[in-house]
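Re: the 225-residue chain
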Amino acid sequence: MIVLDKVTKVYKVGETEVHALKGVSLKVRPGDFVFIVGPSGSGKTTLLEIMGGLMTPTSGRVLIDGKDISKFNDWQLSLFRRNRIGFVFQNFNLIPSLTALENVLVPMIPEGITKSLEKRARELLKEMGLGHRLHHTPGQLSGGEKQRVAIARALINEPLIVLADEPTGELDTATGAMIMDYMRKLNKENNLSFVIVTHDVEYIRKSDKLYRIKDGLLHHVRRVG
């Protein structure tokens, strides 16, 4: 379980303090499929990055299985992210000079690329219909193919939770629906938790957990719309 307890984040812009998050509390349980919506600049990405240990809160706690990750040092945070969290970034964040297969394996470089890891990476890409694109670089892939590579990279470490920042934002409607269907398949079959920041509310279902963030405040929404 991931628990955010009264999390705040304050940025300093010159002499001005910007309160990106204002006492946000949230629980994500195993198997949850969570959407967070809100206008640009509302704190969505900041919230996601704090959940994943990419950013430290100004105050409050982030608990993973009862452990306060906001107290971890850089090395502990790095291990935590590598072993527990999968990230899907809005702009893919693929390395242009590497192939699809190599990009999927990037998070595992610190512990060494074994044959079993390479096999898993190949299988993940094949499951997403990219078995014929293993050795293509990002410049040779479509937007949908890049996003599928990014999702495979997020799954290579067999995470407990996947955090996705606008995973359909750069995609056409049909490709976006395909990506979301694949995420739901993983959620159902593997009890894998997802937290998805999006503007694309058409992908949200009544069974999902929906939150709206505005001006740094998070509110649970009972129904879509």
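The chain has six helices and ten strands.
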